[in-house]
Request: fold
Amino acid sequence: MDKQVNILGFAGSLRNGSYNKALLRESTKLVPTGAKLEIFDLEGIPPFNQDLEKSMPDRVKEFKAKIRAADAILIATPEYNYSIPGVLKNAIDWASRPYPDNSFEDKPVAMMSTSIGILGGARAQYHLRQVFVFLDMHPINKPEVFVTFAPSKFDEKGTLTDETAKKLIRELLENLVAWTKRLKKG
Ligand SMILES: Cc1cc2nc3c(=O)[nH]c(=O)nc-3n(C[C@H](O)[C@H](O)[C@H](O)COP(=O)(O)O)c2cc1C
Reply:
């Protein structure tokens, strides 16, 4: 696969000053040559209602189309109450429906998290990995990117300043691109 690898990224936070959105912004600078990262904002995706899944809201249609067009997915998420934020799970639920029209099926995926706490969102990532099983996605195992104590790792403009985190994100993206190419070959 020599053509460009297109990655779609989204964050599990709607907050303007979100540290996880900042991780995605940083990732656009760290993608390897031959790959491109487009960011989708989950703003505007309504609460899931199964009555509407056969005539989906436009914003959900747009999200599903972007996922379908992407070669790989990148998720940056906070941890809320030791798990995945509702905003992220809600968007995933929409894009996985109506059964069996799961737009995530067979997609390679990488994830990262940052939180203000000592584990950097690790518990949310392990819950997300479980969700990938039913979605039939192909997650990258390593490196695991947990950016701990977020306020100390970003400057006042919301730019990631931690070199260790940048190195890990660069490696994660390289692995995601290599993994995507391997899967496409088969
Ligand atoms: C509802 C809620 C629950 C949270 N639960 C956790 C948690 O379980 N673990 C944690 O490390 N931080 C938790 N936090 C703090 C987040 O790490 C912090 O708000 C972080 O900035 C959220 O990510 P964002 O900056 O991308 O919005 C929680 C925050 C909120 C609003």
The chain is about 40% helix and 15% strand. The pocket of flavin mononucleotide is lined by residues 13, 15, 18-20, 78-82, 115-117, 150 (CB under 6 Å). The first strand starts at residue 5 and ends at 11.
